Amino acid sequence: MANKSPVLTTDSSGAVPADRKVQASNKDSAFAALGLAKTVQAVCDEIRELYQWDEIPWVIGYSGGKDSSAVLQLIWLALRDLPAEKRTKRIHVISTDTLVEQPVVAAWVTASHKKMEAAAAEQGMPITPHKLTPDVKDTFWVNLIGKGYPAPRKLFRWCTSRMKINPSNAFIRSVVRDCGEAILVLGTRKAESQRRAVGMAKLEKNRVRERLTPNKNLPNSLVYTPIEDWTNDDVWLFLMQVKNPWGHTNKSLLGMYQGASADGECPLVVDTTTPSCGNSRFGCWVCTVVDKDRSMEAMIKNDDEKVWMTPLLDIRNDLGDFAKEPERRDYRRMSGRVQLFHDGLVRGPYTKEFREHWLRRVLSAQCEARRLGPAEFGDLELISMPELHEIRRIWLYEKHEFDDRLPAVYEEVVGTPFPVAASDDRLLRSEDWAMLQEACGGDEELFQLQAGLLDIEREYRGMSRRAGIYEALEDRLRAGQYGGEEEALAIRQEQERRREEIEKDVESLTLSQGSLFEEGEAEGG
Questions:
Q1: DSSP H/E element including 129
Q2: Angle formed by the axes of helices 444-460 and 469-479, to 10°?
Q3: In whole angstroms, what is the distance from residue 453 CA to residue 93 CA?
Q4: According to the model, what pLDDT value does residue 411 have?
Q5: 222 forms bridges with which residues in the sheet?
Q6: 288 closest CA partner among 308, 252, 265, 317
Q7: Are strands 212-214 and 127-132 parallel, antiparallel or unpaired?
Q8: Reported pTM
Q9: pLDDT in tens, 196-221
């Protein structure tokens, strides 16, 4: 079968007629020399050649955004022109759902996967979509509400590896384990940023063969970036001119970006004076690494039908209000240590009060979104039942909070009982919690210490070998040694002052000894 150029057709995405010549006027465009049709043909030829080169399976990273959509569309078009007997090598399309993806984008990707699966079966394409999710212990809410991790920031991005990188790497490793190697296909482009361009230029020097670069993070895997030289405008021009082959219209993708642009504009770029639509970023709706979630703000502003997402934006903005963190976070680290930095406290996890606060906020937002949102979001899950069970386990068995507040908070907000799983019958009860509070006479520090000690004893009760109990009790006593934040700060500052004095004395003594040694050497000489 002869290889054909992808046909430029008018479809629901608003593409222009096929007989209209498409030529980018921007000198930086990948289409500047040959035009769109011939450039796309050249890329498809390259894809077919690489696909048939060996039996190494491909893994395409697909976020549902414009770049990954363009890459998947190019590969689909290229392979569709191969005879069926040559389309034998499996291609995996992976999308990582962090479980806190922007709901509109998550729904878009889910719908695309369904159409992709059906179209691949109908057209005989060796393409299989996979939706990957993090382990429940690694999800955002389990770590923030369960363990008390503070909202992520640039210097503490605890979420990225747990929620995005680990699930995709685990999948790629499984492919490598089964097949020996894997080729990872990405929509990475040099035009995304200067930093990205420099990084990609360095990687090019290590290419083992045309267009394939070793993956420095995953052994036995190579990386292929077919649109690395395309600009934002090139990507949109391609998506608007070439019909999506699995039936998910590119017009709705354009509309999603348009809605996420501050001015509501997202024109088809035809020359250098037209603003690009490529700068909108979609990610986790809880992301506090950036100052503002401009895409969600724009969606709510530009579309009355998306006002239901306002409670989500409010939670995100409240999480990112770092000025309030001193009142929200414990003065002790997760280990119970009190740590100083520039004579001030390095704060630890969210307190019990604020972990319950965030749980209440998320459950309330979930109820409101289901009530006010479109029908397709009627069963929207901002926090899943497995996550809630894991949070309850952490509060009970790791935080030693045997008042078991999660079921009560859930029922107060949702209005239905929480499905409590069968638990350890040695667990202390909420009534015991109330009695202990009364016995401690309002001393919160003493109460927390006693609750922790009691629950550690409960945890080890009945064991034939109680190995580790003394260490656990010692750690809890060490964490509870201070009468409060002010006392902890004063004690640690005094300890640091003494340490610095000792270091100065040692340094002074060392210099004195050195001077005496030099004098002795001089006299001896």
A1: strand 127-132
A2: 170
A3: 50
A4: 97
A5: 183, 214
A6: 317
A7: unpaired
A8: 0.82
A9: 666 656 666 566 667 788 888 888 99
Helix extents (H) in 373-442: 385-393, 405-414, 430-439
**Does residue 227 contact residue 245 with C-beta atoms inside 8 Å?**
no
- DSSP helix/strand/coil, 329: strand
Rounded Cα distance between 354 and 327, Å, is 9
Summarize pLDDT for 6-59 with one digit per residue, the tens: 444 434 333 333 333 444 446 689 899 899 999 999 999 999 999 999 999 999
Write down the H helix ranges in 343-404: 352-372, 385-393
Whether 58 contacts 76, CB under 8 Å: no
The Cα angle at residue 307 between residues 304 and 309, in degrees rounded to 5 = 145
Q: Higher pLDDT residue, 238 or 509?
A: 238
The two three-digit tokens of residue 188, written as one number:
């990475």
Reported as a pLDDT band with limits 50, 70 and 90, residue 303 is: confident
Residue 5: its pLDDT value, please?
A: 44
Coil, helix or strand at residue 342: coil
Largest CA distance in the chain: 99
Pairwise CA distance, residues 368 & 131, whole Å: 27
Structure tokens given for 524: 């001896």
380: left (phi over 0), alpha (psi -120 to 50) or beta: beta
Residue 73: closest CA among 281, 190, 227:
227
DSSP state of 146: I
Contacts of 461 by beta carbon, 8 Å cutoff, 6+ apart: 426
d(CA 469, CA 459): 9
Q: Is 188 exposed, middle or buried (0-12, 13-18, 19+ CB in 10 A)?
A: buried
Helix (H) or strand (E) holding 221: strand 221-224
Between the ranges 181-190, 197-206, 277-286, 448-457, where is the mean pLDDT highest?
Answer: 181-190
Distance CA 187, CA 302 (A): 28
Closest CA to 396 of 415, 364, 363, 420: 420
CB-side exposure of 509: number of CA atoms within 13 Å?
6
In angstroms, the CA 406 to CA 396 distance is 10
Average pLDDT over residues 134-153: 96
Beta strands at 221-224 and 344-345: parallel, antiparallel or unpaired: unpaired
